[in-house]
TrEMBL record:
The keyword Isomerase does not apply. Belongs to the trans-sulfuration enzymes family. Residues 1-26 are annotated as: Disordered. This is O-acetylhomoserine aminocarboxypropyltransferase. One of its GO terms (biological process) is cysteine biosynthetic process from serine. CDD domains: CGS_like (cd00614). The modification N6-(pyridoxal phosphate)lysine is found at K209. GO terms for molecular function: cysteine synthase activity; O-acetylhomoserine aminocarboxypropyltransferase activity; pyridoxal phosphate binding. The lineage of its organism: Bacteria, Pseudomonadati, Pseudomonadota, Alphaproteobacteria, Rhodobacterales. GO terms for cellular component: cytoplasm. It comes from Oceaniovalibus guishaninsula JLT2003. Keywords: Pyridoxal phosphate, Transferase. The keyword Transferase applies. Signal peptide: none annotated.
Amino acid sequence: MPDKTHGFDTLQIHAGARPDPATGARSTPIYQTTAYVFRDADHAAALFNLQEVGFIYSRLTNPTVAVLQERIATLEGGVGAVCCSSGHAAQIMALFPLMAPGRNVVVSTRLYGGTVTQMTQTIRRFGWSAKFVDFDDLDAIRAAVDDDTRAIFCESIANPGGYITDLDAVSQIARDVGLPLIVDNTTATPYLCRPFEHGATLVVHSTTKYLTGNGTVMGGCVVDSGTFDWAASGKFPSLSDPEPAYHGLKFAETFGPMAFTFHGIAIGLRDLGMTMNPQAAHYTLCGIETLSLRMERHVRNAVKVAKWLEADPRVDYVTYAGLESSKYHDRVARICPRGAGGLFTFAVKGGYDACVRLIDAVEIFSHVANLGDTRSLIIHSASTTHRQLEANQLVAAGAAPEVVRVSIGIEDADDLIADLDQALAKATA
Ligand SMILES: *Cc1c(COP(=O)(O)O)cnc(C)c1O
């Protein structure tokens, strides 16, 4: 049985899993069931009172999903995790216990395009709002926090521009103002970056990406560090005060460091229903076993391709923190010591039109709105994923019209370079 002292490569295979008690199955079975038989009426009552941990109904908990939750929590160094149906669901699930009508979250301008839209538009329906700030401007983050702010939110390695957030500096601000820092660690994965070691409170993931790793299933996860004192702050009544949605239960008092995780299951999944299904958990468990091997190759290939592009006269610039020319290169050793990930953008001479021609000319790269696949992927963010954004938001997010984003896969780097070479020839002819 692995424990937390084991290395990452061991934990990514073993954490949370044990041979199936009924059959001895070594690989975690897909528990394809909606409900679980109670031993007797007392057992059922204890489960519903959260006095005993067990399985009731798969909207709340499922044994296959539970293994994945423990696996991801362990890899991140957290105390608990709640899996959900997608990365975007995870973001709502992370904010939900903290927010209320009139409250706001201070967020980085450098975010996944869908997150920008979620935060600028959709969360307003709940009466929440987001204040966008350049996270390199620490004074601006402090200035944006007001009495109604309930969280600070950023990405560790921000999609799409290869920007690395100074998590140490941002978490210091979060501590000073007594707010939780939520870090979207999707593009880094816990292999490259462990936000809790830099002071983050919660981590969210789109498990759709590198954690599954092969572009097969959607999923998300919220991981809790267990370090935030919800009761002391007085700002989070759903966690600290009697919660009317759970017959007056005080989550912080009852569950201590597990309060956020229990709240996520007992209220978040119960009432919002953004549940991960056991099939998805199975695929993600299979994928996560090779996370470190894949991330090493993603990084090695990304460095090689980025260097080649940087030296090519048809390319204006490359934004990859793994390059010495990057403004963020000196954050790599501190924030993501095993590498700056597999995602970056580059600007093609000839601007928007040349980018569109390049996308149409690639053969190995796939033109898709995804990242973190074994396959190399390419997209012109300005005309697709970031299409909803205004011109200034596009530039702030690192998705200017003259850049294409690549998610470098684990194929032979030389084949990737040859593909880009022939496509650049067509794009800039
Ligand atoms: C894909 C992605 C999301 C959204 O995740 P889904 O699983 O597509 O809902 C959020 N953040 C980042 C950084 C992403 O790459």
